[in-house]
Amino acid sequence: MYSEANVVNKGVKVKLYPDGDMKQRIHQNIGNARFVRNKLLKEYQDTFALFKQYGYSKFPLKT
Question: To 10 degrees, the CA torsion angle through 21, 26, 30, 36?
């Protein structure tokens, strides 16, 4: 098999030059991702507050 010495991480830099429609779609996707992230964060905070309200000191619970 391969040892860690043989593994090489390579990266590629790409610069995009989007036109007007592509820019609008990129901004829409970023906005959608931000909305979903904030919505999930709010749900997590609400759940944590509910657990705290009922006396659970650790979250998530370990069984």
Answer: 70
Each residue's pLDDT, cut to its tens digit, for the chain (63 residues) gives: 555 667 777 889 999 899 999 999 999 999 999 999 999 999 999 988 888 888 876 655 555
- The full 3-state SS of the chain, as one line of letters, equals CCCHHHCCCCCCCCCCCCCHHHHHHHHHHHHHHHHHHHHHHHHHHHHHHHHHHCCCCCCCCCC
Report yes or no: 16 and 25 within 8 Å, Cβ to Cβ: no
Q: What is the pTM of this model?
A: 0.59
Q: For residues 41 and 33, give the distance between their C-alpha atoms in angstroms, rounded to a whole number.
A: 12
